[in-house]
Amino acid sequence: MTEASVQALQGLRDLSMLKWYVIPILAIVLYIYTIEIKKARESGNWDAIFAGLTLFGMDFINETWNGWVFHLTQRSAFWTTPGDTALRTLVGWNIEIMFMFSIAGIIFYHTLLPNKETRVFGLPNRWFFALLFTAFCVFVECVLNYGGHLVWEYPWWYRSFAGVWLIFIFGYFIFFAAINIMLGLKTARGKILFVGAIYAIAIAGNIIGLGILGFTY
């Protein structure tokens, strides 16, 4: 097991690690969702909520398979977050990351132009912003990795040309692509089923891991 992995296991889901700043951040997240729900009730458009849930659900899937990698290798996940946190929920996930991803989809949704046909630099604006947001997120990840807050163990998931492209595609682009796919669905029922399927995959992966195989990463 790598040193970062050992550190990431320390205090895993230990509620004694909680810090008071979690409370105001939680309040901010709840406020954002409350405002979006109020707008949705008035307009009948729930896309902002669906976007927020879609991105968080996609990250939930990513963190689930990342924990599986750790269990299967008994060495390291693709990424670990061994540093200080108010609560470490998985070896590569903590409460601060969860709060950020819970609202990132809403931020992305409100960045999109009203007309989906509008192009930016020749690309449909939804896909232009998906690429732009992905590039920004990868940049932030590289900064966090350079500072030792986000540890990458494997050469194919690292600050190299090949590694960065994998992070670009599987680390983030699929998040925003999922939102765009969801937005392209015609009915609210279809969107609910799409979001529900994302969470079903993540929950099933954790039920198998936690409930059947017994690992808690």
Overall description:
This protein has one domain. Helix content is 67%, strand content 6%. It is built from seven helices and six strands. The protein is globular. The model has no long low-confidence stretch (mean pLDDT 94).
Protein traits:
single chain, 217 residues, two-stranded antiparallel sheet
Secondary structure blueprint with pairings:
Blueprint lengths: L2 H7 L12 H22 L3 H27 L5 E2 L7 E3 L2 E2 H17 L7 E2 L2 E2 H22 L4 E2 L8 H24 L3 H26 L4
Helix pairs in contact: 2-4, 3-4, 3-6, 3-7, 5-6
Quick synopsis:
By secondary structure, the chain is mainly alpha-helical.
Number of domains: 1
- Helical proportion? 55-70%
Largest sheet: 2 strands, antiparallel
Q: Please, how many helices?
A: 7
What is the topology, as strand order, of the major beta sheet?
Answer: 1-6
Q: Structural class, from helix and strand content?
A: mainly alpha
- Runs in which pLDDT lies below 50 for 5 or more consecutive residues are none
